[in-house]
Known about the structure:
Layout: E1 21-26, E2 29-36, E3 39-46, E4 49-57, E5 59-61, E6 64-65, E7 70-85, E8 93-107, E9 110-118, E10 122-129, E11 137-143, E12 146-148, E13 153-159, E14 179-183, E15 194-202, E16 206-213, E17 223-224, E18 232-236, E19 252-254, E20 257-258, E21 261-267, H1 271-275, H2 278-281, E22 296-300, H3 301-305, H4 312-324, E23 329-332, H5 336-339, H6 345-354, E24 358-364, H7 383-396, E25 400-404, H8 411-426, E26 430-433, H9 442-445, E27 449-452, H10 459-463, H11 465-475, H12 482-485, H13 513-522, E28 527-530, H14 536-539, H15 542-550, E29 557-564, E30 568-575, E31 578-585, E32 591-595, E33 606-612, E34 618-624, E35 631-635, E36 640-646
Parallel strand pairs: 22-23, 22-28, 23-24, 24-25, 25-26, 26-27
Antiparallel strand pairs: 1-2, 2-3, 3-4, 5-6, 5-11, 7-8, 8-9, 9-10, 10-20, 10-21, 11-19, 12-18, 13-14, 13-15, 15-16, 16-21, 17-18, 29-30, 30-31, 31-36, 32-35, 33-34, 33-36
Helix pairs in contact: 4-6, 7-8
Bound molecules: calcium ion (CA).
Amino acid sequence: MKFLFISLASLFVSVSAWAQQASCSVGELSLQVNVASGRASYSVTYAGQQLVKPSPVGFNSNIGDFFNDISLVSSDVTDVVVDYSLDRIKTSHVHHDARELVLHLKAGQKLFDVRFHVSANDVAFRYEIPKQGETASIRIFSEQTGFRFPDNSTTFLCPQSTSMVGWKRTKPSYEEEYVSDAPMSAKSAMGHGYTFPCLFHVGDNGWVLVSETGVDSRFCASHLSDYKGDGLYQIAYPMPEENNGNGTVEPAMSLPGVTPWRTLTLGNSLKPIVETTIANDVVKPLYSSLNTYKYGRGTWSWILWQDGSINLADQKQFVDLAAAMKFQYVLVDNWWDLNITRDSIPELVRYANQKGVDVFLWYSSSGYWNDIEQGPINCMDNSIIRKREMRWMRSLGVKGIKVDFFGGDKQETMRLYEQILSDADDNGLMVIFHGCTLPRGWERMYPNYVGSEAVLASENLIFDQHHCDREPVTTCLHPFIRNAVGCMEYGGCFLNKRMHRSNASGNFRRTTDLFQLTTTILFQNPIQNFALAPNNLDDAPAVCLDYLRSVPTTWTATSFIDGYPGKYVALARRNADKWYIAFTNGTDKPMNKSLDLSQFVTKNQVVKFYYDDEKGNPQLKELKIKDPKKVPFKLLPNGGSIVICDIQ
Ligand code: CA
């Protein structure tokens, strides 16, 4: 829960013909805007420390230059209340005060606004462009929009991939490796900048998470440029090669029109970063749904049994596994069109439904933009075929689709995402995206959106030992970065020791079972397709299976406790009358640490305590809390612990 305190005295706005300045503060956060020498810039301080140095705003377009010859006409500030409920994000109800500072600017003779949305730990801003005389549309060529950090800042960044490379020429798809604690001067791995979100550590002064939200069919998705020097990164648009070279990189929209919001979450600790809801605070639902969607856990044969498991007999085994685990869903992955066939899908759905399990079906997004041959292909990119498919699924009682292998971040791909979501809702289908872009406020914008991959996800543990070796570190990055701004459909929680259906060959898992269980709390997505296989019913510890039979996938609150990106993380999420507290050690050393759990437990309260014993076997005991401010934990290397407690 966030409790915000805003002093009316903290608001200060001044505009004058010569000073050309404006500012806006909420709590410890203060935004300053300056217009000088024909250029506009903004900077942000938190608790008196400048975390974002004067950074440029502006853009170039086919109707003129909105970067040079800028003057401030006027500005105004309004108080706003952010208040909404959403059942698919890290908290179920968001309520806080915020302020919006709008700069009314002139670029030469052209008018435009910059709207800043300011709350206790977040700044979001976008351009708002009115009709310019008779001109009622715009193409934006590029933006100068920037983020300038103090010299001592270090970075946690994920490089943008080169286009049309990787599996069946499907990249970029947000599946590269984050590099921790790198200097700003480091070069991005492929020379194409960095994908959102981007985390900056400003020395001892604080943290800043930069991202983007509110991207729909009316704009492209952006990323961060390579380092420009002097602390500066800028907004970069998609690469021409994306989508196999089809489609423009220059977003176009009608006027009046608005750009997506670019967001900064700031604080002197990581708590506001982990808990931020800014991605959903500044967007609105784009349609209301007549459907009620149910979230939950699923089995997914493909992750351990791979392509060979997409047949009727194996899928029935995974339905049985879902039923045995009290999971709600089974996800039927690629090649079902060939190896199960459309004729037998009704039988599979009936079989699942009889066992209380519902079905998700996989589709390729393709398309002319990659070489994907896993079927079904060429169904989701064409509105006639897509609607036919979705009506068929609705007639069978299929509850959702997973659409994979998108073509990049161009505006035409954003249109495709939106069309799939909109048509799917017409047919009562939830949508998961894989091989895809970062979701940007989509939980609130699209009522049937239930998750995106956009991360180097669990499949990589199957593919390469390197990713098993990195799993402890990457797991401890996601709550601070990727999963801080949007749902993350990771497909994790392995109980196999080896990354193969036999559980006797394949890559070695480096983490303990308890580590795996903590990821069910660390990783937030309303549908969790866990990486279990039927053998786990016999060979996995009962304590793990019992835990997974009841762990929720939706949360009413999220509270950060302690951690450092890539090293360890302790956080609590609440569901109904219980807190689920996960503590994960991403280092290869034992970790003995006491956590302050006084926000969650009381003295002498008895809690469920899950831990690794000295041999790394998962154990559960009842623990009476002696001192809620100092609850001791002993974590194994790459281990974890979980506390489940009733809310007092
Ligand atoms: Ca993938």
